[in-house]
Structure formats: structure tokens, C-alpha cells
Amino acid sequence: MQTLSFQLELCPELPNVYGALDYRLFREMLINIDNILIKGGLEHDLISKGLRHYVENHKLDSERFYNSKASAFHYKYLKYALRCNIARHLTGESYRAFSLRLADSNLFQWFASISALGSRKAVSKSSLECYEKCFDETLLASQIQKWLSGLNDNKHAEVIGLTGAIDLKDTWIDSTCLEANIHYPVDWILLRDATRSLLSAIKTIRAQGLKHRMPAPASLMKEMNKLCMEMTHSRRRKGSKKYRKAILRTMKKLASCVAGHGERYKKLLIESWQKTAWSEAQANQVIGRLANILDQLPNAIKQAHDRIIGEREIASCEKILSLYDKECEVIVRGKAGRETEFGQRLVLTEQSDGLIIDWELCAKQSLQDSQLLKSTIDRLEKNYGSLRSISTDRAFASEKNDIFLKTRNIYNATCPRSPAQLQQRLEEPLFVSLQTRRSQTEARIGIFKNVFLGRPLRTRIALNKRHAINWCVLTHNLWVLARKIIADEKEQLEKAA
After folding, report:
1. CA–CA separation, 456 vs 468, rounded Å?
2. To the nearest whole percent, how much of the chain has pLDDT over 70?
3. Is the pTM of this model over 0.85?
4. Which of 17, 28, 328, 406 is within CB 3.0–4.6 Å of 180 for a Cys-Cys bond?
């Protein structure tokens, strides 16, 4: 076991603010979260694991690292990252907005441990973005689950202020669509997106002094925007179908022309990036932006041609929905007012107190809900031990799942698909009780998506999505526990009175 020795900063006490009830409740909640992080051991365990991962990832000498000043520096860095991420997701603000709020708020400075006497560290939006990714995604998820499993012990629960252990035996499972940060996927608009991205990268390269003969990028973008407006209003014309096909042919020519300029500028940057003020990494970033669009543009043009000119249907699995979010797919939900959604399937599991104890962001073209139940239960039993009951909606119901739950000796509160079978099961008081409780799961998903994740989640990269989900799960669970501690203390005071 490695021991770190360093001097903690001397921080001033929080000022007392009277009269603002909402502020005082929020402040009390943050103080409870601080106690949970410290007394529950979550902060130290997570940072220690993060340090070990840093040493292994950079292939450092373990003994030499832990005996140097670098270990204390990285420990404090990970502590800042942990607390800033929790505070930012608790407010639901962007990197820029939270950076401003953190620099101006005594409460958040105290919580993030940056309010040292004599000097207060301002955190930029770029640093906040780096904080989001400084913990390994798998490590963070496993530590959250390990911490949650420890709450099942009475002593551990009482240490952080709870009146008793958290029951993890009864679970409610549901899936939702993690909506992608895209516009409605119209085929011809993909050509506008590609043109805009290519011209943006080209202007960036030209600003560095690397130029190739071409029309002004602004004029090409203006021409594409004009075609998009004509396409938008073409339905009101007589013979609109023929007119739309003619406009698309012009858009295809313009997009192909811009793609040719993009290829030339990509080659020019690869050969002459040393003449710019960029580093090699910065040049590769711009090259990657160009390559991403150029690789997908031929398929986007073909897709628009098949749909509008050829009038042929394309399977959902073959469609390009976004040039930037490659994991995005069409999810048929059958909801009122929204038959389909665009994004990824997210499976969440909560327990009786509202804690999210299991989560999975499914890959593109994933299995259906009924096929995901077995793997979800396997993860739950691996992390938390045997289960007492499972409650889901009818999307998870199947004969195979009924047999599986029976073999695992888990009470099956899955809503049946058959109306006759549902009517029969409504005679069971326990089934009715668990299904009634399931209505709260819908609200839990709404809170998690709209308050913590943000709607939509801004990132389009799969790894960054998983990072954001892990941080939001941790923040949500700390929020639920802090509120529960406040409610328990209030109840005890009322009983004592």
C-alpha cells in the first residue's frame, strides 16, 4: 500500500447567508455530499485508483513516483477534477458557464477545494473539459458500483449519515433513448453539413498561409445555402418532385466540387504543415476533420440520390444519420407524438430509494430490450449479490426471460405482453405493488436525462458519452443520498419533538 504525504491548503469557512432558503438547502446538500465523499471513502479510493492507473499507463517507476512531489501534485489534480465534475453536473451547466460560476462562487470554490487563503485558483473551461476525461471510463464505473455495494452494510451507511443500509435487492429496469446532438436527419441536408465542414476546415488552413487556387469559400457556402432554401420551399411549387430532383443534382455537383478542394487542401497540409504555426498534433486534427467528411461524402451523395431521384427506400441500418455521430441509430419507441427517436439505447436500473445502480450505453444496432435483460441481471448479481425482484415494462417480457428469472429464483414483476396474462397477474398484491412503484422509474429517467445529462448530450464521441454518463450517475446518486440524509434528519427531529 502506497502512502502519500502532503500539506492540505488552509481554506476559509463558508459565509453564513440568511434568508435565502433555496441557497441554504443547496448549501446543506453540498456539505452532505462532501461528507459522503470523505467519510464514505469514495474520494480517496477513486483518486488512489486513478493514480495507480496513471502510473501504469505512463509506465512509471511506482516507488520513485510515490516518493516524489509529482504524486502529491497528481493527487490534488484528481481531487480537483472529481469535485469540479460533480459540481458541474449538479448544476447542469456548460464548461464555459460553470467556469464563470466557479470563479465567482464561494460555495463552489469551497466544495472544489480551490479556496485556499491568499490565492484562489480559477479553472478555465478547457481545464474542466480535461477534468471530464482524466479518470479512466471503466475504472470510474467499477468504483461507483463498488461504492454502491458498500452502502448495503449498516456500519458503512451510518458513517455517511444514513439511518440504515441501502436495500439493493429490489430493482427496476427500463431503457430510454439517449438523443443524439443532431438536427432531423434529412438526406439533402447532409450535403450542406459536409460542405460547411469542409469549407470551415479549408478557411482554417488558408488562414495559416497555405493556399490553393479556388473560389472564395464564402461564395461556395452562399451558393449551397441558396440551394437549401430552394429545396425547402420546393414542395409548394407545381411539379415539385421534378424540381427537387433538379435542385439535388445541382447540390451534388457543388458538394463534389467542394470535396475536390478539400482533397487538395488535405494533401497540401500533409505535405507542408511545417510552414504553419501549428504543431503536428494540431495539423493532424484538421486533417482528421477533412478525412472524416471526405470518407463519408460519397455515401451521403448516393443516399440522397437513391431517396430523392431514385425514390428507393434504404434500410435504417444503412442510413447515414449524422456525419459526426457514428453511433447514432433510429430507435422505434412508438410514443405519442414521437414514433421514432435518433440516438443510442441507454439501459438504467434503479433501486427502491432511487439510486441508479446499473447502466449500459448500448452500441449501434444493439439487441432489443428483452434480449438485454439477462446481461443486465448478470451484471447486477456480479456487483451486488443475489436479487429479490426485477420489475420492467412489457418491452423486456419474453418466455425465455420468464424461465431465466425462475431459475435464478428472482421474483418476476415484468409486465406481460398478453392482456389476459396481465389481468391474471394483477391478482398478485406484490406484482401490483412493484408495478405501481415502476411509475417512478419513468420520472427517474426524465430527471437523469433532462437535469443531469442535458437534452441533448452535447458530445458526439462514444467514449466521451460514456464518460459523461458515468459522471452523471455518480452525481445523481450523491444528490439522492444527500437529500435522503436531509429527509432522515428532519424526520428524526419531528419524532423527537
Report:
1. 12
2. 96
3. yes
4. 328
CA distance 332 to 341: 6
Is residue 116's pLDDT more than 70? no
* pLDDT of res. 5: 59
Find the helix packing angle between 217-232 and 240-272, rounded to 10°.
160
How far is it, in rounded angstroms, from Cα 400 to Cα 415?
A: 14
55-62: average pLDDT: 86
Question: What pLDDT, on the 0 to 100 scale, is given for residue 117?
Answer: 59
CA geometry: angle 331, 333, 336, nearest 5 deg: 140
* Chain Cα centroid distance, residue 178: 8
3-state secondary structure 270-309: HHHHHHCCCCHHHHHHHHHHHHHHHHHHHHHHHHHHHHHH
In this predicted structure, the answer to whether residue 85 has a pLDDT above a threshold of 90 is yes
